Amino acid sequence: MTAPGNKVLIATLNLVTSDLLAPGDIGLSETAWLKLGLQDGAQVELAHPAPLNSLSAVRSKIYGKVLDQKALDSIISDVSLGKFSDIHLSAFLTASAAHSQDASEVLALTRAMVKIGKSLDWSRTPIIDKHCVGGLPGNRTTPIVVAICVAAGLTMPKTSSRAITSPAGTADTMETLAPVELSLAAMRRVVESVGGCIVWGGAVALSPVDDVLIRIERALDIDSDGQLVASVLSKKVAAGSSHLVIDMPVGTTAKVRSKVAADRLGSLFKQVSNELGLNLRVIQTDGSQPVGRGIGPALEARDVLAVLTGSSDRASDLETRAIRLAGELLELGNAARAGEGVGMAADIIASGLAWRAFQSICDAQGGMRVPPIAAHQHPVETHRSGRVASIDNRRLAKAAKLAGAPASKAAGIDLHVSLGSVVEANAPLFTVHAQTHGELSYALEYIQNEAAIISVEEAP
Amino acid sequence: MTAPGNKVLIATLNLVTSDLLAPGDIGLSETAWLKLGLQDGAQVELAHPAPLNSLSAVRSKIYGKVLDQKALDSIISDVSLGKFSDIHLSAFLTASAAHSQDASEVLALTRAMVKIGKSLDWSRTPIIDKHCVGGLPGNRTTPIVVAICVAAGLTMPKTSSRAITSPAGTADTMETLAPVELSLAAMRRVVESVGGCIVWGGAVALSPVDDVLIRIERALDIDSDGQLVASVLSKKVAAGSSHLVIDMPVGTTAKVRSKVAADRLGSLFKQVSNELGLNLRVIQTDGSQPVGRGIGPALEARDVLAVLTGSSDRASDLETRAIRLAGELLELGNAARAGEGVGMAADIIASGLAWRAFQSICDAQGGMRVPPIAAHQHPVETHRSGRVASIDNRRLAKAAKLAGAPASKAAGIDLHVSLGSVVEANAPLFTVHAQTHGELSYALEYIQNEAAIISVEEAP
Fold this sequence. Notes:
alpha/beta, 3-stranded parallel β-sheet, Pyrimidine Nucleoside Phosphorylase, Chain A, domain 2, 44% helix, homodimer, 4 domains, Transferase, Pyrimidine Nucleoside Phosphorylase, Chain A, domain 3, 14 strands
């Protein structure tokens, strides 16, 4: 449908045989009225949609061809115009995962994704940024790292995504502490006034197809290397970042399962970012167990606050990781000399400067919030006494998702132990949090039917 | 949702806050009422759906694993229960196309598809069958072949599919001549009374997931070797066939583009059918140009009738192909001696016996119909005189689809030339048939924007 001002919409045409509409008249949904910006009585033109030529490129990918810039531009442009159905989106992502994408294709995909979105240009440098490739429940260092770096005077306009296959993304967690759906103009005002932000990337449309693709990847529970690198780097380029630290947790049940896989993914990140002129450092971190205690938006937010306020029961592993990453960024951004970043980051937390910076960011984003607490909480106990020998991140994350996270912000898992903890029989290993009884049962049923998600070995 | 009698339905739960329903009450769609066979006031139980474990198998396939019987059983069973969304169906089919499936996997897939459907057992032998792998517009030999074989006394319970990526499947074409949506019981009555039938396989539920998968393949315009073999053989096994001839047109713009591809596909057909105890013969045929003159359900039906009735303007290429295939089947089914099948088939047509058998089949299926004629017809002319040098099957098929085929039965393309035809400038090469003005324009626009679909070379 073409409306005045050449506005175009792809719609389903339903024929009406009653007298609801006069012959030649057309009715539109609220969404269509808004998108076309129409007045009542306006003239519109109808035609069949043009055949979707970018599907040939999708078929080439299915059969293993490396796609070039032109092919990826046509696919991403059609995706952004809403021309791809779920069937087509799923085929594109599945084919991309099935045939691993080389650096040239990932670079082309990244550029295609940047082209169709808005881009930010900051009239200062450096613009620092961080990203965690995920897969480690509770690894919510971002709000702490941003607070430290902003307190040190660096500029850090952080956009985060919502969960892809995990129980919480940084945007989901941060949303329990402050509004994260800011416009691009509002985001710019926040960064210019306080030096940094932590907002949802989808709302500022820096890489508008990213959330379209993520919805499909979540349904399939896949996240391929090429798609991951393009998704991350397209948002960083569009956000105007110049210096970037990648946190890459490595562990048998993390997203990146081995050193070999981490090196391969890190190398892809470096090849593509070099071509894009991004200064990037990849940090491989321990991915053997969750970070902090909470898994799920509100429970993770609680852990973040404990570290920032220096609470006596704060999770020291979360604090240590945040300090390490912030230290790298302080050095990369020339706020600290080589070797002095970690010490400086620790001082900024201990002095309360990071907590003050975080509050000012929340205030600037629309006001600080108190994370919700779940209506239903149910402890899961160990049957025997001994020492915690292993924790399955994937199944723990799955249980948190079945309990309702991330859609239900208060839902998730609260851990009471970590690797090596000594426990008595019948002591709680973790507590399931859920907002409804149904979701609680759903998670508990999964936990009971699985082999121990946290295994306890008898002490010798 | 679980209803009395352990009937289960997966549904979306919408919460109502108005007084439309009393607390604890639930309303259902018409479809849900029917599926659960409920009475007003019945008690139902609600629970979250169990997590879809077969998705792990789909993910394994994405990453290139060969799936075993157990994995494919779980996928196909979940598909048949409606548990796969379009996203999941598309990922399964895309991954299967991206990593070519070996014979063991295709055999397992075929068996999984047979298991979840009904199967026919005929108390006689042989039960003969044919299948064309498609890709050649207008290649509508099936009704003629069935008529010949039935006239020769063989039993041929033919189930056909609707179009996957073509402008017409045999079921679409046959539907313009007689009802094709018969129940399994009705199909059995037809075959027992007249010796054969030509019905839509989807209606008799011999391979119920097949049409679910075909809907997705059509949207993606892909049809992989493994999926094709499993789709065909699962229906043949379920239909109780013992002897099968495969018509495989080979040509640069047919579905099978080269001798190498044809040999590979033929070998996969043979390996899998051997394991299934099916006696199968693959016939490679000329796929360089369309067969007959019509492309689209009604236009192809017209060509079929012309051959059966011995009309003077019948398409001789269609007749020759049908006789060749019928000849192979007459020999395979022991109705003719080796080398005598083709002659016998020709005699059966010439004598009018095939036409009589075809009429009795149509009558038994519910009564013969007259194919519709399109409201709009528009000739497409050659700009210069000369000789027809090439015909692009794919783009001709696409034009027929844009004109409305197969959903619009009368729509399609009527060819006036074939390879080698000598034409004068401004002579019509083909006529586009469409039921609506919009569809006609849509097809003509495509034809005008493409390089010549039928190329004419000036005589030297």
